[in-house]
Amino acid sequence: MSTTEFVAPRTGRIDSKYNRATTGRGRFEMIAWLFMRLSGVVLVVLIFGHLFTNLLVDEGVRGIDFGFVAGKWADPVWQFWDLAMLWLAMLHGTNGLRTIINDYAEKDGTRFWLKLVLYIATAVIVVLGTLVIFTFDPCIPGSALEVCK
């Protein structure tokens, strides 16, 4: 029978073979874990604010149309609100999928390609969404909108 020393929890003493916090990857995973918690809280506030504004104020769902979006995005506050919601939701979801890929993809090559596709898709959606928010112009050439005249 061998004698093994058991270290009491929370003593601050960690066996060196289990100390992963000193590596760069361990630190990244801790930051990613913390980001998921903080972004989740912020997303709840952003999403409920978005839903309240779009669904409960004025005419509700019946009032959402092209003009509603054009009026909303004419205000920089709503542009920033929707941009923050887009970026946080995409990064939050990407981080979650990255974790799932790390957990379930067994081969290094499979893991690499899945994460590459994930990162490319995320970059494309974030760039396109950002461009839509900041370059949105309600004045379509030839339109009969009074705002554009």
Automatic annotation (TrEMBL):
It comes from the Bacteria. InterPro entries: SQR/QFR_C/D, SuccDH_FuR_B_TM-su. It is found in: Membrane. Keywords: Heme, Iron, Membrane, Metal-binding, Transmembrane, Transmembrane helix. One of its GO terms (molecular function) is metal ion binding. The chain crosses the membrane at residues 34-57, 77-95, 116-136. Its main location: membrane. Coiled coil: none annotated. The keyword Mitochondrion does not apply. The keyword Metal-binding applies. CDD domains: SQR_TypeA_SdhD_like (cd03500). GO terms for cellular component: membrane. SUPFAM superfamilies: Fumarate reductase respiratory complex transmembrane subunits (SSF81343). This is Succinate dehydrogenase. It comes from Neomicrococcus aestuarii.
